[in-house]
Amino acid sequence: MTINHRFNTTAIHAEQCPDEKSGAVSQSIIPAVAYCFDNAESAVDVVSGKKEGRYYGRYGNPTTRTLENKVAVLEGAEDALGVSSGMAAISIALMASLRTGDHVVVTKDVYGGTHKFLSNIATRYGIEYDFVDCTDYLNIENAIKENTKAVYIETPSNPTLTLIDIAEVAVITKRHDLKLIVDNTFMTPYLQRPIDLGADIVVHSATKYLNGHGDVIAGIICGSKADIDYMRKDVMGDLGQNLNAWESFLVLRGIKTLGIRMEQHCRNAQEVAEYLEQHPMVERVFYPGLPSHPQHSLAKKQMKNMGGIVAFEVKGDVQTGKDFISALKVAMISFSLGDPETLVQHPASMTHSSIPESQLHEFGLSTGLIRLSVGLEDAEDIIEDLNQALLCTVAVPMKN
Ligand SMILES: Cc1ncc(COP(=O)(O)O)c(C=O)c1O
């Protein structure tokens, strides 16, 4: 264990050591499904959970175990579970925390997939939910009912980067004996550690910054040993949502550079946000690192740095937003985030296109809103790209 080391040392060394037989420094990829035992007794001990070990690939894998142990250390959790996607992490965490007849309070600007899971699937199994504005803690208190078992939040939110004070929400969940689940995908443990702030369960789309190279779909859940054991044996394993050895290896490799990547994402995003804020063709910029962000002081208290996502409104209608992203040459139009490449999307015509234009404001969105996942390229090149796209698509405002 290297728990006393700083973040980058821990990210590289924690829970990993050279392969005993070959001396190989890099993590071995063990794709085995079956594991053998010296005798029946030890097989029984592992299956019953009395002894740590693997017995069947759907319930755990040695390469994935290394990843789980490493992320648990980085998040300050007792244990972690690697699963097949961020949505698997979210659905497992919710299914493990709720039964038929239970209720969950969910922040209103939650990731679309989480919204869809609750409204399409969870509801069919009698799980109740309320989407509330969790930036006002009174709303959470007011939404808690007798059958409430959990509060689910995401901070900063997607795409308008609204923050929720995790420690404040944890005071409420502890008072009511509820599980607090936090989606930490945007921040990673390098920038924010929800368990230190009182969260019970942390979920990640490891597809994003944790892996960081746009070539893996994966999820991680962190929490107490008891919660993770239950999720592994009674939810993930039984539903077959396990993560495989190859993808675990790739995420482990990505995590080695997580700290330096996040530093560069944050540095670039800050420069991009400052550039956009002074641009006459930009109506508004959403970035927690700008003093103009309404929760800038909470961001400084809760996060180590401000993250790699910048949202902004270009002046114009839906077509202007589409024209603007089409004119970009370095930034790529894409639905993902957290990759080395700068990725851009236009919620009104892409992720939120099902919402009528007249109702966009109800979701805190506008026709010209653009979400930029600022990549690892040189900031000057990203800014020059934004500049040329703004010049060729957005009308210059007339001076009075
Ligand atoms: C904040 C957040 N959580 C969860 C997910 C789901 O992750 P995955 O695509 O790995 O299932 C996403 C995907 O974009 C996300 O942005």
From TrEMBL:
Stored PANTHER family: TRANS-SULFURATION ENZYME FAMILY MEMBER (PTHR11808)
InterPro entries with a match to the protein in the record: Cys/Met-Metab_PyrdxlP-dep_enz, Cys_met_metab_PP, PyrdxlP-dep_Trfase, PyrdxlP-dep_Trfase_major, PyrdxlP-dep_Trfase_small
A single MF term (Gene Ontology): pyridoxal phosphate binding
Keyword Repeat: no
Matches recorded under Pfam families: Cys_Met_Meta_PP
CDD domains to which the protein is assigned, alphabetical: CGS_like (cd00614)
Cofactor(s) needed for function: pyridoxal 5'-phosphate
Record family assignment: Belongs to the trans-sulfuration enzymes family. L-methionine gamma-lyase subfamily.
Alphabetical list of SUPFAM superfamilies matching this protein: PLP-dependent transferases
GO cellular component, one term: cytoplasm
Entry's Gene Ontology BP terms: transsulfuration
Keywords for the protein's UniProt record, in alphabetical order: Lyase, Pyridoxal phosphate
Claim: Lyase is one of the keywords in the record: yes
Chain positions with N6-(pyridoxal phosphate)lysine modification: 208
Record-listed E.C. numbers: 4.4.1.11, 4.4.1.2
Domain of life: Bacteria
Recorded coiled-coil stretches: none
Protein name: L-methionine gamma-lyase
Catalytic reaction list: L-methionine + H2O = methanethiol + 2-oxobutanoate + NH4(+); L-homocysteine + H2O = 2-oxobutanoate + hydrogen sulfide + NH4(+) + H(+)
